[in-house]
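Kindly inspect this today.
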Amino acid sequence: MAVGLEKRLTEKLKEEMVYQVKSLRSLGRPEDQKMSGAGIPYRPGVKLCLERARLVTESYKKTEGEPVVLRRAKAMANVLDNMTVWIGRHERIVGNYAGDPDSLITYCEQFWRWLDKAIEKEYKGLLDEQGREELHQIHKYWQNKAMQGMERELIPPEVKPYWKSI
């Protein structure tokens, strides 16, 4: 670098943890990494944010019996009105899909089965005990309501015995 020339802002941002990817892909091969005992494919410090799942579930509970399209719209409005807005330093395009940049979200209205099991095993490090219990309660509401699993109802009865269930 020439004398007097400063690094571009985008080059500086790459060095800040906030702007790095959540997975271990940027840290090398997962099997080479010490995943801080968590056994998950994310860098240390990444957590699962329950804020969106909480807000969507809260809205769906309040709108039982209404048309699905209205329930979906009201759930989205509830998320947009109440979700934490996180704006980082130097951001040119602001916003984050979770409560903070080191968090992942879940779409409980679409799927829940695999995650309900995974947070007790390989993804246990993403939540503390209280968070796991809350997510189990959220998932309990979505049993027989989430998109995942509805495809089972479309399978002909003679094929169902051969369908691998989760």
Summary: Residues 9-162 form one domain. Strands lie at 47-48, 103-104. Confidence is low (pLDDT under 50) at residues 28-38.
